[in-house]
Design brief:
Blueprint (H helix, E strand, L loop, with lengths): L2 E2 L2 E2 L11 H12 L10 E7 L2 E7 L5 E3 L9 H7 L8 H9 L35 E2 L2 H4 L3 E2 L1
Antiparallel strand pairs: 1-2, 3-4, 4-5, 6-7
Length: 147
């Protein structure tokens, strides 16, 4: 589980939490004059003369022209769904199709003085060898427990 720098089983941690990454990127981009629009899904990346020149927004069809287009989507979505395959070399497209995209994971280690007794499932605590519990934080799903 996990990997850093091509090594499996290793964990890297972001100082300030994962939210620090987009905050740092957006602060740097704004300092360089970038305008950032949020809550605006992209349906297509515009390409002219072999170069990305903007995006088309989903729903409105609005075109936004740019000197630089950056995607935070995985390579398969970015290159195979947002771009016209005719704009990409066949060999590159074949590599992207074979690219293995791994999901994300979260690992939390807790030291407890007893078995958990969740408010949403009172009295459901069992020995860890017979039942695993997952807890979705209250601010996410109002204290929903999955057992």
């Amino acid at each position: 589980m996990g990997g850093v720098g091509g090594r499996r089983g290793v964990w890297g941690f972001v100082r300030g939490g994962m939210g620090a990454i987009p905050e740092a990127i957006s602060a740097s981009a704004r300092a360089s004059g970038a305008a950032i629009r949020t809550n605006a899904a992209v349906s297509k990346i515009l390409v002219e003369n072999g170069r990305a020149v903007g995006v088309v927004l989903a729903g409105t069809g609005e075109e936004i022209r740019a000197r630089l287009v950056v995607s935070n989507l995985d390579p398969k979505v970015t290159f195979l769904k947002l771009l016209d395959r005719r704009d990409l070399p066949d060999e590159f497209t074949a590599h992207v199709e074979r690219f293995r995209c791994e999901g994300t994971s979260c690992k939390i280690n807790l030291a407890l003085n007893g078995l958990p007794d969740f408010r949403c499932l009172p009295g459901c605590a069992r020995p860890a060898t017979s039942r695993h519990h997952a807890f979705v934080p209250q601010h996410r799903l109002r204290g929903t427990c999955l057992g």
